[in-house]
Queue: 2 jobs
Job 1
Amino acid sequence: MNLEQIQKTINEINFTRFLISIRSLIGGLLSCAFTIVISITLILVCSVKCHHKTFDRITYIWASFILFVLNVDVKIKGEEHIQDSGGLILFNHLSLLDIPILMKALALKKTFRFGAKIELFSIPFFGKAMRSIGVLPIARHQRNKVLKIYKDSVEKVKNENMSYALAPEGTRQLTDEIGKFKLGPFNFALYGHLDIYPVVIKGAYDLMTKQDSLPCQNKWKSTVTVQFLPVFPTNNYSEEDLDRLKTDVRQKFITAFNS
């Protein structure tokens, strides 16, 4: 390759990165604007007490739009492990886009709500919309309040087949791997005698890490895999087995993530 060809290649790379940056900026702005529209829609819909399935469809539309404008394709594995019954969905947390990714993969197949850090509930429209549809407010540094919220939510799991999706790592990871798990979600599972539905997300780390100000800045098109693992029953665990349950479930994540 001569000097002229090298310079041409560099120019092409720089132009491609420029286009990706523009797409990320526009996609990010469109995602924010559409989130406001969907939040207002959810608030209005909740005021007439619609069925959970209506909320599921609206959140699916929100997730699909965001992933479309950012050119993120979601592949699903292990769909046969998705069950109608309520329980606790645990997913590994690598990217800010994990939420729409999981909604895109699951919202039309199973009714569930996320747990979200309580600071997000102060965002205009977005916070009220989350409260309206039943997202769990998680005060990370107030363990007693978190456990009370978990306990109060068990009735919905039992009576309404509601499931709750939590990230056992507690926050987005700084590296592309399974992080340490916290005990809170497993307290929730044992208190309510809830089955655990593990979900492993792979390929999401580069989409938007903690250090990124804009989404999807590395590739023009990204592909993420959402793998549903077999249900993990908790009926053989007692409160004294809390650490063992956490360790056993985490090992399932590590094995699937590294395969």
Note: The chain is about 45% helix and 15% strand.
Job 2
Amino acid sequence: MKLGIIGKPQSGKTTVFNAASGHQEAVGDFSQSQHRAVIKVPDKRVDVLAQLLSPERAIYAEIEFLDAPGFTGKGKDSHAPEISRDLRLMDALMPVIDCFSPASSPQKDIRDLLDEMILADQVIVENNIDKKSRKIQLTGDKAGAKELELLEKCRTVLDGGNLLIDTDFIDSERKILRGYTFLTLKPLLFVLNIDENSISRAEECKSEVAQYLAPGKRDVAAMCGKIEMELVALDCDERKMFMDDLGIESPAVEKVIQKSYSLLGVISFITVAGPEVRAWTIPKGTAAQKAAGVVHTDMERGFIRAEVVKFDDYVKYETHAALKAAGKARLEGKEYVVQDGDVIQFRFNV
């Protein structure tokens, strides 16, 4: 899973990146600097199974964060912002919104960032409409004519100041549009960067931007980037003391990751095989055979059965023999829909 962190200059996006990644990149008005990091996704289920089974390796799912330049915060007056190809390849975007400075205006900043995303996509649409129109005139390409019609539809949406993700495209249209990597087709997780004194009223801060939210498309989280960046630099004992003093139950980054999973519609299942306990990320609704292919293509090709144990049952019965005796290890076929937290052993033959 890849998340692109964006924001206007001095919104604290690099601070949020540091808090998420544990890096110590310079913060301030360095709007043209790009930073990248891959982090392990905290998963207490992997922790518990590793403690129970004592494997040689416990491997967590991963998230890639990209702290990307390119946005000015000027909204429609920004003309055509320079958006990197790397950012367009992200699965979702995390716009960081200044909610800490005296002159902050979260709603305006959100609208300005959305306007810049729209402008960036309009450039892509206009350029491709021009190219395809000329090609169709020369070749009479019927397939190209259908794609041109779709791009015209996108232009109408964007010219109206709307995001493409809010448009009801059919599956075949979405398949075509994926190749254009439009920013406004990506889910958004707004991160409200609050000050230390606002930690206790985080929910109130989130309610102030509720009009921008939409299930499966846009969500919001609140965090004090400065505090969270300091937390990741502490050892475990110091971190717990610091969090207790501030009344923080868990690092905000963990909540951001949870919301990202929900927004993108992904879940994790776990495999226990020999020396390794490992978490894997898949789209919600994935069938067992497809999930096997995430582990190894041979498993999908030669899939026979999936032996599935619920995580809570694994913790309760502890051993594979006890699970089988209690009837908690079920054999499922290729159409079984994998559930979050399933512990699976795939049987296959190639």
Note: The chain has a mean pLDDT of 90.
